Amino acid sequence: MKAIRTTYLGPTNTKPGRIKASTGEQSIIVSYSHDLTSSDEHGRAARKLADKFKWKGELIGGGFPDGSMVWVFADTTDRA
């Protein structure tokens, strides 16, 4: 089963807030626009990474206490 983890990266002196979406080996970083809710921003980053690999399907997300989220595909046939 494929999973994507998203993590908020806070602003620095030279960069605004961002969200990192990763699969373990591959990752992307997208800007945090503040136009959406936090979970929607995380979902947008997860979808961008999925699109990069041409992974299709609905993503379902869940959160961790540290604010990061994990996303899995709802309609996959790759199940335990």
Fold blueprint:
Blueprint: E1 3-9, E2 18-22, E3 27-31, H1 38-52, E4 59-63, E5 69-73
Antiparallel strand pairs: 1-2, 1-5, 2-3, 4-5
Write a brief caption for the model.
With about 80 residues, the protein is an alpha+beta fold.
Question: Structural class from helices and strands?
Answer: alpha+beta
* Helical coverage, percent range: 10-25%
Largest sheet: 5 strands, antiparallel
Number of strands: 5
| pLDDT < 50 runs, ≥5 residues | none
Our Rg estimate from Cα atoms comes to: 13 Å
Taken in chain order, the helices and strands follow as EEEHEE
Principal-axis shape equals globular
Oligomer: single chain
- Side by side, the strands of the main sheet go 3-2-1-5-4
Question: What descriptive keywords fit this protein?
Answer:
34% strand; alpha+beta; 19% helix; 1 helix; 80 residues; five-stranded antiparallel sheet
Please provide a written account of the structure.
With 80 residues, the protein is an alpha+beta fold. It has one domain (3-73). The protein has one helix and five strands; from the N terminus they run E-E-E-H-E-E. The protein has a five-stranded antiparallel β-sheet, with helices on one face. The mean pLDDT is 90.
